[in-house]
Structures are given as structure tokens and as C-alpha cells.
Amino acid sequence: MDKLLIQGGARLAGTLRVSGAKNAALPILAATLLTEEPMVLSNLPHLHDVTTMLELLGCLGAEVVVDETMEVEITARQLTQLRAPYELVKTMRASFVVLGPLLARFGEAEVSLPGGCAIGARPVDQHLKAFEALGAEITVENGYVRGLAPQGLKGTEFCFDMVTVGGTENVLMAATLAAGTTRICNAAREPEVVDLANCLNAMGARIRGHGTAEIEVEGVKRLHGCSYRVMPDRVEAGTYLIAAAVTGGSVRLTSVDPSTLVAVLDKLRESGAEVRCGGDWIELDMRGLRPRAVDLETAPYPGFPTDMQAQYLALNAVADGSSHISETIFENRFMHVQEINRLGANIELAGPSSAIVHGVEKLRAAPVMATDLRASFSLVVAALVAEGTTLIDRIYHIDRGYETIEEKLTQLGANVQRISGQETG
Ligand code: EPZ
């Protein structure tokens, strides 16, 4: 299993191009199942999760052609099966979003239940309730969700009990081919949902209101192929901004959409960073200063993203002052706390969903272990300022969501080395 070796102390500086968004790419890849025509997707990030989704599409019978720039052509003309197997779904929960497109186009589908994961139980009850509201018959047996809608799905009004990104995406895709109009209320407003809706509209769907909590979808008989460029990854962008800020450094990000990062940029300014933005770039300069501690609470978009909580907590760990961090989206997203404390941080858990971070002046290197994708990068953030060399184990988590992490960090002047090899224990 690969490990990362990071020698702390370098002040990050330089320019970085932001990759395409993993969390937009995955549902957009699933959307290719909605049409028999070829779809050409660009700006896909080179990540394990994207490869898993391509593998799943291939396993269903879609033709997948990838070129060296990760531009992908997918043609789901005739599928060979309508079953997404456990072996693939268990490695990536996001594959559950193939259920909506399969059900809408073929009137039947079987997708393995994804199960819980490190950050929480993450049930899919809302997805299932919405499919039932669209007229599908849903059964759960032997670990598989089976959906049947032999007469096709029917437009309806559906209100989610909570904001769910994957639920909104799954239902949005299903509704594009339903008969009549579907109104989704309490829909997720995340930019990745908007990117998916834009792609679906480019395929001939009639979606309005995406980006608000009420989305209206007028069903159409068929969708056609198109070329679509996936949006920039706001979580990757925010993560590198935090990494630069913690080292007192300065960074210019290109190929980024600053309008998707308002909550994070506000927090970085509160922490003492100078931040400037243009149409597709962001510059952050920390001027060598130690960050100030800032409180934060995660919330659905446009609130502060749960996917950047861990990284910001690591910044607060060395900030001047104490801060309170509250996680409202997932019930178990503080596993990084223990690991960051191994580096000499002073973070207390105040119940399952909040942490009090007492900023310390110095962290010191220690071996640590990555527990999930974003938590893993919080260890990188901490290691960048720790005295000495930190060894981060189990970085396969990082490779699921951060493209060429050691190259990007090295480009900014960090001392990072990947050690490939077997886990020793
Ligand atoms: C998406 O997960 C992202 N994943 C997550 O990013 C992100 O953290 C999350 O949205 C929240 O922003 C992808 O887009 C691939 P949810 P998703 O459905 O869709 C509960 C990362 O690091 N819920 O919005 O699975 C659920 O348990 C990942 O890149 C139900 O109870 O998240 C959670 O507490 C991690 N029933 C909350 O809602 C349901 O049917 C939000 O989950 C669905 C969700």
C-alpha cells in the first residue's frame, strides 16, 4: 500500500491548475446511460473513482473509449445487463446513481445496496422513496435494490426529507425520461447538481430551477448524445488554498470557478488570507502569517462544505486561538482528529458532531494513518507544517479524490515523496 512522506516547513508558492470535479464527473458518467447516442466527456479527473465508474459502465455493456487526455467517449447503445454488482458498488457508493438512469430508460434495474462507510451510515432511503413516487416498484432483497417500472416512470411532486446530493442527482436523471412533469422540492443546490443538470439539458432534457431548492423537470421521450466539459473541482481547489494558507504561502489557482467557493474563501479571509478572484482564477496570499482561528459549521451548499471540514480543522490546529467546528452532514466525520492529535495538536471532541480546536504553535512529525478521502488530506495539511518528516499511511483514500497529489504539492514547493509498496502491518 502506498504511503506519503512529507517533510514539513516549506512555504507553498506557485500556480496550480485545478482538475475536473470528481463529484460532478461521477453522476455525469452515469447520465451517459440515458441515451443510445455517443457522449463525449472532457475534463474528467484521472482518479480511481472515475475509473471505477467507467468499469461499471463497461460491465453494463456500454462502449467506453478513453484517450490519453482523459477525454472519454461513451456509447450505451445496447446494454448487456441492467445489474450493478456488489463488487463494484461496494468500492464506490457513488455508483448507486446508475439506478435512476437505468430505471428511466429500460424500466428495470438492479443495483447493489451501497452499505455504510467510514464517515457515516449513509442510507439511500430518500432515493428509493423518490423512485416509488415516480411510479417504480422498489424491492430490496439479498443486498440488492430492484426497481421495476415496465410502463415507464411518471412525473410527480417529491419533497426530500433532507438535502441529499446523490438523491437529487439520481432522481433528476430518472425524471428526464418520465412522462409528464416532476417537481423536486428541498433539492440539493450543490454546483455538481447544477453541472449534471446542464449536461442533461445539453442532451435534450428540460430541467429548470437547478441551483435552487425547487427543480422542475419536464420529461422528454428520448435524450441525445452531446459533448460536455465537466466543471472544475471546488473541493480540490479549496483544499490547496487551505494547504497554501497553513504554510503562510501564496498560490494562484487556474481553471477554477470562484463562484462555487464563496463560503470557503470567506473563511480563509477571516483566517487572515488575502484572496483575489477573477473569472477562472483565485489568488491567495498569507504573507507568511500564522492563521487566525475561525469557527465553522458545515451545511449543504451554499454553506461551508463538509468535504472541506477536515482540511480546515487541520489549519485551525496551528492557528492563533481556539475554534469550534461543527459537522452537520455526516455523523462520523471526525476520525482525523485523533491522527492530527498524534502530531501534537490539541483538539477535543465535544460530542459526535463537534470539535474544539485549541491552536498550537507547532506540530511535530509522527506516523499517521489516512481514514477517508478528505480526512487524508487534512493529514497532509498538518504534515506540511509539522517539524520533521511525517509518514502518512493508507493514502489510497487520497488517490480516490486528488489527482497526482505529490506532483501538485511538489509543484508548489512542498517536500513530498510517495513510497510504493506492500503494507507491513
Ligand atoms: C455527496 O455524497 C458527495 N459524494 C460527498 O462527497 C459529499 O460529502 C456529500 O454529497 C455531501 O455534500 C459525491 O458526490 C460522489 P448526501 P452523497 O446524499 O450524495 C443522508 C467526498 O469526499 N442521507 O448529500 O452520498 C446521508 O446519510 C464525498 O468527495 C439519508 O439519510 O451525500 C448524509 O448524512 C464524501 N438518506 C446526508 O443525508 C438518503 O437517502 C447527506 O448525504 C440520502 C442521504
Account of the protein in words:
This protein has 425 residues and is an alpha/beta fold. Helix content is 31%, strand content 24%. The protein has 14 helices and 26 strands. It has a four-stranded mixed beta sheet with strand order 23-25-1-26. A hairpin with a 3-residue loop joins strand 16 and strand 17. Helix 8 packs parallel to helix 12. The longest helix has 13 residues. The mean pLDDT is 95. Ligand EPZ binds next to helix 1, helix 5, helix 6 and helix 12.
How do the helices and strands line up, and which of them pair or pack?
Elements: E1 3-7, E2 13-17, H1 22-31, E3 39-42, H2 48-60, E4 63-66, E5 72-75, E6 83-84, H3 86-89, H4 99-106, E7 108-112, H5 125-133, E8 137-141, E9 144-148, E10 157-159, H6 165-176, E11 181-185, H7 191-202, E12 206-208, E13 214-218, E14 227-229, H8 234-246, E15 250-254, H9 262-270, E16 274-277, E17 281-285, E18 296-297, H10 309-317, E19 322-326, H11 335-342, E20 346-349, E21 354-358, E22 363-364, E23 368-369, H12 373-385, E24 386-387, E25 389-393, H13 396-399, H14 405-411, E26 415-419
The structure holds ligand EPZ.
